Amino acid sequence: MSAMARAPSSSGAVTDPIRVMVVDDSVVIRGLLGRWLDEDPNLAVVASHRNGRLAVDDVLRSNPDVVILDIEMPDMDGLTALPLLIEKKRNLVVVVASTLTRRNAEISLKALSLGAADYVPKPESNSGVTTSTEFRRELIEKVTHLGQRARKRGLPGQAPAGRPMPRPQPGAPAPAAHSALRASRPGSFTIRAYSSVRPRILTIGSSTGGPQALNALFGEIGSAIGMVPVVLTQHMPPTFTAILAEHITKAAGRPASEGRDGEAIQPGHIYVAPGGKHMLLAKNGGDVVIRLSDAPPVNFCKPAVDPLFKSVAEIYGTATLAVVLTGMGSDGAEGVRRIGEIGGSAIAQDEETSVVWGMPGAAAHTGMCSDVLPLNEIGRKVSKILLGGRP
């Protein structure tokens, strides 16, 4: 299917599809991804290349909205090509595709720090890619959402990236800027008062854009979390979460590690839900311990945020402080609802500073958040609350 504009379909497909470039050294993978993408009326493959150098040379001519970029390629690999692609085309979305080796996981997280929007874990063999419905679903979902977000940010009259959005007042509708940006989410959200109880735990949920947001957040709150444990779920596969914990340790100046089943949580330590397992908290005598679950995915995610948030709320009640950062989907919203019902507090990242305002947007629209803030304000607010200051 060509990259020419298409008429809207009965399912609401866009007239001008999102333009995608595929960069992978395997001709089989390029062909397979190209077919998958072109089967979606909202997407169109405009270029396909076997290495980074060809992609860099062609990016201005083919003018893609999104590049799917392999890591290991001859002549020029993905990590080398990434900054060159972004330098050539402003607002280009790059999604890194890599297999689940530790080396590739480290490179993928490095790519996020260099400007990649997200990553997709790729099965190790061509046959694995061909048969993986999960890989196909995640790839299409991320290309679609990130491509739409990039186009929305490029519209005339939009606020520049990083500008803090006006904060909603308690009981008031969202500001007009928020309403304009979330045309697909009718209605408005309200905020509620913070709990008057000083938090005894901080729990965090994040997904797309989360590693970058987590590094920024922990860089600000490291000195404030000495008196409370931190438990977080970032949507990530195995191997990636262990490396994420290492990055968080550096950013926070506090120990961070994947949670272990039966481990008693301690103040000043950060526990990351391991990829492929749900992480929950439970009481065990006088201790609060981690429980890992192999239950089915929740909201298509494993680990998922909702099980963690709900378990935290049941133990800590009004002494719960939750933060929902950037991410696709609505995971975390039901957990935030429970935290609010039980009297705890929750903060959602605002739309303008989110890579995707799915999860924080869904949380905000529960009416149970106490603030909807730009990322660069969340750390200061969390630190103040944890140190006993008035919100």
Automatic annotation (TrEMBL):
Cellular component, GO, one term: cytoplasm
Function, in words: Involved in chemotaxis. Part of a chemotaxis signal transduction system that modulates chemotaxis in response to various stimuli. Catalyzes the demethylation of specific methylglutamate residues introduced into the chemoreceptors (methyl-accepting chemotaxis proteins or MCP) by CheR. Also mediates the irreversible deamidation of specific glutamine residues to glutamic acid.
Active site: 207, 235, 331
Gene name of the encoded protein: cheB
Response regulatory domain span: 19-137
Compositional bias (Pro residues): 163-173
Molecular function as annotated in GO: phosphorelay response regulator activity; protein-glutamate methylesterase activity; protein-glutamine glutaminase activity
Keyword terms of this UniProt record: Chemotaxis, Cytoplasm, Hydrolase, Phosphoprotein
Protein name, per record: Protein-glutamate methylesterase/protein-glutamine glutaminase
Signal peptide boundaries: none
Family assignment from sequence similarity: Belongs to the CheB family.
Pfam family for this entry, one: Response_reg
EC number(s) given by UniProt: 3.1.1.61, 3.5.1.44
4-aspartylphosphate sites (modified residues): 70
A GO BP annotation: chemotaxis
Region Disordered: start-end pairs: 146-182
Record note on domains: Contains a C-terminal catalytic domain, and an N-terminal region which modulates catalytic activity.
InterPro entries, sorted: CheB-like (IPR008248), CheB_C (IPR035909), CheY-like_superfamily (IPR011006), Sig_transdc_resp-reg_Me-estase (IPR000673), Sig_transdc_resp-reg_receiver (IPR001789)
Compartments where found: Cytoplasm
Organism listed in the record: Pleomorphomonas carboxyditropha
Modification after translation (UniProt): Phosphorylated by CheA. Phosphorylation of the N-terminal regulatory domain activates the methylesterase activity.
Reactions the enzyme catalyzes: [protein]-L-glutamate 5-O-methyl ester + H2O = L-glutamyl-[protein] + methanol + H(+); L-glutaminyl-[protein] + H2O = L-glutamyl-[protein] + NH4(+)
Primary subcellular site in the record, as a coarse category: cytoplasm
Annotated SMART domains: REC
Stored CDD domains: CheB_Rec, REC_CheB-like
CheB-type methylesterase domain boundaries: 193-382
